[in-house]
Amino acid sequence: xxxxxxxxxxxxxxxxxxxxxxxxxxxxxxxxxxxxxxxxxxxxxxxxxxxxxxxxxxxxxxxxxxxxxxxxxxxxxxxxxxxxxxxxxxxxxxxxxxxxxxxxxxxxxxxxxxxxxxxxxxxxxxxxxxxxxxxxxxxxxxxxxxxxxxxxxxxxxxxxxxxxxxxxxxxxxxxxxxxxxxxxxxxxxxxxxxxxxxxxxxxxxxxxxxxxxxxxxxxxxxxxxxxxxxxxxxxxxxxxxxxxxxxxxxxxxxxxxxxxxxxxxxxxxxxxxxxxxxxxxxxxxxxxxxxxxxxxxxxxxxxxxxxxxxxxxxxxxxxxxxxxxxxxxxxxxxxxxxxxxxxxxxxxxxxxxxxxxxxxxxxxxxxxxxxxxxxxxxxxxx
Length: 382
What we know:
Blueprint: E1 2-3, H1 4-9, H2 14-21, E2 33-37, H3 65-78, E3 82-86, H4 96-105, E4 109-114, H5 121-129, E5 134-138, H6 143-150, H7 155-168, E6 173-179, H8 187-197, E7 201-206, H9 223-242, E8 248-252, H10 257-268, H11 270-283, E9 292-295, E10 301-302, H12 320-324, H13 330-333, H14 335-338, H15 341-345, H16 349-352, H17 357-364, H18 378-381
Helix pairs in contact: 5-7, 10-11
């Protein structure tokens, strides 16, 4: 994640700063934020779904409630700071509230990534009562754009209603939007939606070529448009701050965004650029296999939610804590030693971490090749 509010506007981001910019006080090794794709079922048909989820009965290999309890206990005992329930659509799990409660009882911060269409007032109250920290609801642009992308008419209105009832229940909520060639110009209207609904957090995701997202790779932003989109997000965020707001705006899944923000700040505010560089260097960029990990609906463990070409073990056979501390993940933790091409000689490698390996592998077949979504010019990386 690249914190636009923090890096560009100098704001604190209390919900995410501790995870990205602070070490454990006891000096122990960093524990990952765990993304758990708790189901592969989904009631929508999103064109960019990285898990290739869909309708139908629960897969036979989906972790049971008891297996999920053991998983949560192990994650908590291992010291993982946060757990993101994702999918598919996590609200389709009938034991969702019970499992969120178990994680919270064991001291794990819990967030929910959802399309929002199944969040009723009752479910929102239940999730609030067990202490869920945050719910991110996915939008793909304005109503027509969103419904076309999600494959179900009326999805936008149902997602918006889910967002509203979660907010009314006292849960912190935010928007999640994957930007591409068909919707990046709608970024200003997403900011307007946030202001209108009283929502002060948004994550703008770059497309990853995983699952069904691989089939729409041609809709990824050209480099010039990607720069324009990130600059638009920066400008909208700055204008909101200038008007007295304090939004928490982040971009996700393209670690070139951090260097780009620094380069823009070098022209606009060198003092803040130096501070941004310090924070980015401390964070280290891509954290796949170190600061973030993924467990799939069937118990397979991956370096992140997109890197599904290699599993490092299955929690049904080996506890997550043992898988995560094994030697197999070492290359992912030492990405800067393995990346090739322009990544290997890039002056920003220490703050980018080699960008997203899943996208590089999907595009070239080589997990250590340069990420094709890096939009920095040769002059900017020299």
